[in-house]
Design a protein that fits this description.
The complex is a heterodimer of chains A (416) and B (512).
Chain A lengths: L18 H4 L6 H8 L1 H20 L7 H26 L7 H18 L4 H25 L4 H20 L9 H8 L1 E2 L10 H27 L7 H23 L4 E2 H19 L1 H11 L1 H6 L4 H26 L11 H11 L11 H20 L4 H26 L4
Antiparallel strand pairs in A: 1-2
Helix pairs in contact in A: 3-16, 4-10, 4-11, 4-12, 4-14, 4-15, 4-16, 5-6, 5-7, 5-14, 6-7, 6-14, 8-14, 9-10, 11-12, 12-14, 15-16, 15-17
Chain B lengths: L3 E12 L2 E12 L3 E5 L6 H9 L8 E6 L2 E3 L4 H6 L2 E4 L11 H5 L14 H14 L15 H14 L4 E5 L7 H16 L3 E5 L3 H7 L2 E6 L2 E7 L7 H9 L17 E11 L6 E11 L3 E6 L5 H8 L6 E9 L2 E2 L5 H6 L2 E4 L3 H5 L6 H6 L7 E2 L2 E2 L1 H15 L15 H13 L5 E5 L7 H16 L3 E6 L2 H7 L2 E6 L2 E7 L5 H8 L8
Helix pairs in contact in B: 4-5, 8-17, 13-14
The chains are: A mainly alpha (416), B alpha/beta (512).
């Protein structure tokens, strides 16, 4: 560098003619929004396309009230697992043991309730305690002993499967008392009556839509107040109307089947809580920071070990929730329960836009990814496609989703 | 005229936005030891990468003549086939493979069956080891050797490739005195066998002890080549060549009125995290409110290691010494504790240690002080945006929005984001490690202005820099660091580039 006397030539321009301002201008609005959010919106588009495809291929059976209810009941535990999994993946980890933990927690619950005759809630509490303990075990080895999560949870997969067999003495236990079965098979209906449909379900649907619209509007107002770029107002309205329509259609269909599944309430609650946890809490931020750049996070004062530990405790807790739901749905505990669940949960997170390298992903994305898997499986089952083809298709979808992610990153030039 | 083995003619190498080498001409005589020296970032390593084909022919202008024949190396294999071997500063050995496996890696000794003949390989490796004076069994894994011995394995590996021109990049930087002396003896012995050697080094005492010629590189140009045999070249003479840069009014003016002492370290010592050597040894320094203190040191002097070991013990082990903030002794055993004690460290490598490149400006700015934006663990997102926006205005971060991804900003703007992040922790003392590395001139000026604003507001600032004019232009007081020790301290009024460089290259005298 030699002498430079007039650095003022490089003086900055005031930041007014920025894309932020351009975003308000309207015409290229939709295009810019789609392009900017291709990564995120891509999976929504994919979900819509897949739903439409199978709706046609199954002559509308896919979207029938009974089948929609069925999808919810059948895949809820995978979605619960995917919540914990995506948080781990954002933090740069993985958990291969969740299938075994689902089995173990279900088995502990079954032994207490079915074999020893304790009340149903004792089984649930015990399952959650076991799940948290398992998570703490994994968290200890990953965070404090410095063993890669892949190894720790691979060991956990074997270890907790073995413990499941031990707890169950290699036999299946069944049936649970009816209160316990309600968790996965129960419905809230008839609370407000209704004529051939459940008005309560529709009310809950309407409340959800209103909540979505209000929180969206408040975010928008706050952003404008802080002079942040927002989508144009018509686009905002269009988005709310679209999401509202989908939610109401969904509620309508449920209302015409058996009402609001209890498990859907649990799931919605978890998605809401964990959505906020990841986006709005210090803990959530630190998870993203650790996954995005471990060294930078550590040098910013993030207590990396503590955060890693709690990520695994949380996964253990959610695996136990999934274990309770699964044991409730299958009305018992089996030694082979939860086999391969980890792979479905991992696939859901990655299809939902989580990055293999960590630091990227959302809870909602993982839910959409999980739904894509669920609709594909369900649709193919309805069509009577055999197991082998189903597996091939699902494998290819996962591969394409991650390839798309890698391609996107390379194009953005921020990979590495 | 001596017999010339290598001639590099009018080499120009540019990277996007930067000219790393400009019109460099270098002639090396057969059988000599040719030293290359210059400040950090002067272009020494780039020149050697051009020579060894790391930057392939066509990616630079100019020509290379080896043994009088023009050469066009497409890669390192081409240059090695001609007997040009480079040994990098960071040794490139595979730790878990044996000495022999490393020596013949990519160049395996095969038997008639096409399989590797390990007896032959080990026997040949044994001979090569003897010729470099290393008495180790060739089947020993490299990880069991110290750095000095690993260096010898690298040289043995070079010899196995029938080396005629050996290039060593900072060969003694990581070695202790005895290993260094041994290595220099070996280079003399290789010279006797007719092997030409190019050696990049910061250690001027080594250069005057061993080199036949010295080429000085400065700002991407070959300034001069000194014949060490003909003239009696002193270290001072070399220093004059290295630092002959212009000082000008590039640095914004500042009133200096230092107040009370803010940070003091006493007898600070740190050991390398894996190797058995001290990287910081008995360092004591202090900085006052409203004062800019510089730390000058060459590559490997322990500047970053010192700063990071002070900042929550983020580097090294067996860290000892006392740390005082506002006259009170504090413990800063973790980064969080260091931040709580009002210390901020702005890294020299913002991409690796400073930023989450895939996240946006807003979240990078708040990353080190999220607790200031949160209550009971909940982050106030609106306040966060406000903080980021005010940083954007104050620091003049050129970004479309605070929601823009940091990885897409220019180096200068990324640096401003890192600075914003640390200013948001409201520190009393900022340690800035190479704050203007890799950013353009306009942004540099802005960073200097920001530093001045900080000291005017009563902050204490420590600047670590490889650019001496920067230190002379910005600081009130400068410490020099060499081999982990403070070798000098002076007010800026008494300092010159020459006097600093002399202290920066002051090393313990060599044995042997």
């Amino acid at each position: 560098m030699t002498s430079i006397k007039t650095p003022s030539t490089e003086r900055p321009t005031p930041p007014d003619s920025t894309p932020a301002a351009a975003l308000h201008s309207g015409t290229s609005d939709l295009r810019a929004l789609v392009l900017n959010n291709l990564r995120q919106s891509g999976i929504y588009v994919a979900l819509v396309v897949i739903v439409a495809l199978f709706a046609v291929l199954t002559d509308g059976v896919l979207l029938s009230p009974g089948n929609i209810t069925n999808i919810v009941l059948q895949y809820s535990y995978i979605l619960v697992l995917a919540i914990g999994m995506v948080i781990l993946i954002i933090g740069g980890h993985i958990d291969l043991s969740v299938g075994s933990v689902v089995a173990l927690t279900g088995a502990v619950s079954a032994v207490l309730v079915i074999q020893q005759g304790h009340p149903w809630w004792v089984g649930i509490v015990a399952a959650l305690v076991v799940g948290v303990a398992v998570g703490a075990w994994h968290g200890f080895w990953v965070a404090y002993a410095g063993i890669p999560a892949f190894i720790v949870t691979l060991a956990g997969m074997l270890l907790f499967r073995g413990l499941t067999l031990r707890v169950l003495d290699n036999i299946s236990l069944s049936p649970f008392p009816s209160e316990y079965q309600q968790v996965a098979a129960g419905f809230l209906n008839g609370l407000l009556g209704g004529n051939g449909f459940d008005a309560f379900t529709l009310l809950i649907g309407a409340i959800a839509v209103a909540g979505y619209a209000v929180s969206g509007f408040r975010t928008r107002v706050a952003r404008i107040r802080y002079q942040q770029p927002v989508e144009s107002f018509p686009l905002f309205v269009a988005r709310v109307v679209l999401v509202g329509a989908v939610l109401m259609y969904f509620a309508w269909q449920l209302a015409h089947a058996r009402g609001l599944p209890i498990v859907l309430i649990i799931l919605a609650f978890l998605v809401l809580v964990y959505g906020l946890l990841t986006r709005r809490t210090v803990f959530g931020r630190q998870v993203y920071a650790i996954g995005g750049n471990l060294s930078a996070a550590a040098l910013s004062g993030v207590k990396v070990r503590t955060v890693n530990f709690w990520m695994f405790v949380n996964m253990g807790f959610l695996a136990a929730v999934a274990g309770v739901i699964y044991s409730s749905r299958s009305n018992g505990a089996q030694p082979a329960a939860g086999n391969m669940f980890e792979l479905d949960a991992i696939a859901a997170a990655f299809i939902g836009g989580a990055a293999v390298t960590g630091g990227v992903g959302t809870v909602v994305g993982a839910m959409v990814g999980g739904l894509i898997m669920a609709v594909m499986s369900n649709g193919m089952q309805l069509m009577g496609i055999d197991q082998s083809t189903q597996s091939v298709v699902k494998g290819l979808v996962l591969l394409v989703a991650v390839a798309f992610d890698v391609y996107n990153k390379r194009r953005a030039g921020t990979a590495r | 005229m001596d017999d010339t083995i290598l001639e590099m003619r009018r080499i120009t190498k540019t990277f996007p936005g930067v000219t790393a080498l400009e019109d460099v001409t270098l002639a090396v005589r057969r059988g000599e030891i040719h030293a290359i020296c210059g400040e950090n970032g002067a272009g020494k390593s780039t020149l050697m990468k051009v020579l060894s084909g790391v930057y392939p022919s066509g990616s630079y202008d100019g020509e290379i003549l080896f043994d009088g024949k023009p050469m066009q190396f497409r890669g390192i294999r081409d240059s090695e086939a001609n007997g040009i071997v480079i040994i990098h500063q960071e040794l490139a050995l595979v730790p878990y493979l044996s000495i022999a496996e490393n020596i013949f890696l990519g160049n395996e000794r095969r038997g008639r069956s096409g399989l590797i003949d390990w007896n032959l390989a080990n026997a040949e490796a044994g001979k090569l080891l003897a010729s470099v004076g290393l008495h180790e069994n060739p089947v020993t894994p490299v990880i069991q050797l110290g750095v000095g011995k690993q260096q010898l394995v690298e040289i043995a590996k070079a010899l196995s490739k029938k080396v005629r021109l050996l290039i060593l990049d900072e060969p003694t930087a990581a070695l202790n005195d005895i290993d260094s002396a041994h290595l220099l003896d070996l280079l003399r012995a290789l010279k006797e066998q007719g092997i030409t050697c190019i050696m990049i080094s910061h250690k001027l005492n080594e250069i005057t002890a061993i080199a036949d010629s010295t080429t000085v590189i400065r700002d991407g140009r070959a300034v001069e080549t000194l014949d060490m045999r003909a003239d009696d070249v002193s270290q001072q003479r070399i220093i004059r060549g290295m630092v002959g840069r212009d000082l000008d009014s590039f640095y914004p003016d500042r009133e200096s009125s230092p107040g009370d002492e803010v940070l003091r370290i006493e007898d600070w010592t740190a050991r390398h995290p894996v190797q058995d050597r001290m990287v910081v040894e008995g360092v004591s320094l202090s900085v006052r409110a409203g004062e800019v203190v510089g730390i000058a040191g060459l590559m490997g002097a322990g500047r970053t290691e010192l700063a990071m070991s002070v900042f929550g013990r983020s580097y090294g082990r067996d860290i000892q010494g006392r740390l005082f903030v506002h006259g009170r002794e504090v413990q800063a055993r973790t980064v969080a504790e260091a931040i709580d004690n009002g210390i901020a460290y702005v890294t020299e490598d913002r991409k690796r240690y400073g930023l989450n490149l895939i996240d946006d400006v807003r979240r990078n700015v708040s990353a080190a002080a999220l607790d200031r934006l949160s209550r009971l663990g909940w982050v106030n997102g609106n306040e966060e945006i406000k903080v980021a926006e005010s940083s954007r205005k104050e620091m003049n971060i050129r970004t479309p929005s605070v929601m823009a991804v940091v990885g897409k900003l220019s180096g200068g703007n990324q640096q401003k984001v890192v600075l914003s992040k640390w200013l948001f922790t409201d520190p009393d003392v900022l340690i800035l490690d190479e704050p203007t590395r890799g950013i353009d001139v306009g942004a540099k000026y802005e960073i200097y202005t920001i530093i001045n604003r900080l000291v005017a507001a009563g902050k204490a600032v420590i600047v670590i820099s490889s650019e001496l004019p920067e230190l002379l232009g910005m600081c009130d007081r400068i410490y020099t660091l060499a081999a982990g020790r403070i070798t000098g301290e002076m007010p800026v009024a008494e300092a010159t580039q020459e006097s600093l460089m002399e202290l920066m290259t002051k090393d313990k005298e060599l044995v042997g």
